[in-house]
Amino acid sequence: xxxxxxxxxxxxxxxxxxxxxxxxxxxxxxxxxxxxxxxxxxxxxxxxxxxxxxxxxxxxxxxxxxxxxxxxxxxxxxxxxxxxxxxxxxxxxxxxxxxxxxxxxxxxxxxxxxxxxxxxxxxxxxxxxxxxxxxxxxxxxxxxxxxxxxxxxxxxxxxxxxxxxxxxxxxxxxxxxxxxxxxxxxxxxxxxxxxxxxxxxxxxxxxxxxxxxxxxxxxxxxxxxxxxxxxxxxxxxxxxxxxxxxxxxxxxxxxxxxxxxxxxxxxxxxxxxxxxxxxxxxxxxxxxxxxxxxxxxxxxxxxxxxxxxxxxxxxxxxxxxxxxxxxxxxxxxxxxxxxxxxxxxxxxxxxxxxxxxxxxxxxxxxxxxxxxxxxxxxxxxxxxxxx
Length: 387
Prior knowledge:
The two termini are 35 Å apart. The chain contains 15 helices and eleven strands. It is globular. The chain is α/β, with parallel strands linked by helices and 387 residues long. Helix 9 links the parallel strand 8 (183-188) and strand 9.
């Protein structure tokens, strides 16, 4: 069996107990069994991380990129951390200054909020919708949701708004402000961001998860809650505002249109892979009489429930903490875009191999579900139990 340790998710074969739980729970059937071990089918995987969460033995591994980040810190003159806004629900009792001070102790030159990139994305989407034709428009903010559409719903590919994600938009803003030689490292609860950074290294040098960050803190004996920040420990180049709401369901929409409510038919939010699948199934036959924007988030409730999160507490508590931290300057909406974040989003449809009857019989025989006697007793297809 071939494993790809460079892919953000891989199987530790020594830990895999052949329980098939990841196979049963993968929403896009991107797990196969080879030599009695479950492996990820990279070509159709969307990196939602559900297999990591349900694996009872911890066999599904998230690639650790901390060493890559340490190398960047030693090689680059300036490395800035792009901190996802959901950090407020991940590190209870740790305010912004404490987190910034702790990250600087790891070697980062400064810390900036990914939410600044989110605000830039919202500005571009608002501008696009203002002159859009009737039809569907889907967010490009969640990389796992984008992969779901690209790989499994290609009919809706053109509906994805062709803008970079908040992480990439933020990196572009940082480089424009601090210089192209600046390296950017994303930190958040998302596994799919690793794949996104792998394909956009000119913008983002690496992406680590909150779990990876916590392990790094522990190795260096740093407790963010005990840090004493100084006046210089602030977000650069400025603090984010409404972009900090992106980690919760509906947060992106709130930053596109001021005080948008559930009664507005032009804006809808769907979180969780199954919810997105339900929303898209059969949608191609419905033609709206206005532009309809869909915020798609692969994790139920939003990024606050990302697969590499630390906090497993109530979604209500986490949502509350994020919104409590966010500012909402409604009078400033829609914002004016600051830089070009256009993106080409290509389809990536994996051709599914067609299996004939003999292939099926061989597979059944290999697991003891078929014999020559079954074929003799069968009236047609060769599999006795189907009669």
